[in-house]
Amino acid sequence: MPLDNLETQLRRGVLEYCVLGLLEEREHYGHEIVQRLNRADGLLTSEGTIYPLLARLRREAHVMTEWQESASGPPRRYYRLTDSGRRVLSEFRESWSRFRKAVESVIAVEGAS
What we know:
3 strands; alpha+beta; Arc Repressor Mutant, subunit A; single chain; 4 helices; 3-stranded antiparallel β-sheet
């Protein structure tokens, strides 16, 4: 599997949880989420990917939204984590930790620290 395809598959699998993690810090509007993910190496994504994901998270009640006025343009829809979203994120963190350790135990280079 080419590395760019591998990164796409990995990103697709964790993007939802990265968004939930960002929203755990504080509420964000969509473009802020895109900017934060663009700054994180390997999580580069487009607004075309994020907005459908945010809509799904909203339908699943993992995030809630609120329109707020903006000093620099039209009102913005802010996304906030719900209790359900916090539970999902917590469960992911536990699974991710186990999964990461399992993968690292198999692919680790002998003698590496």
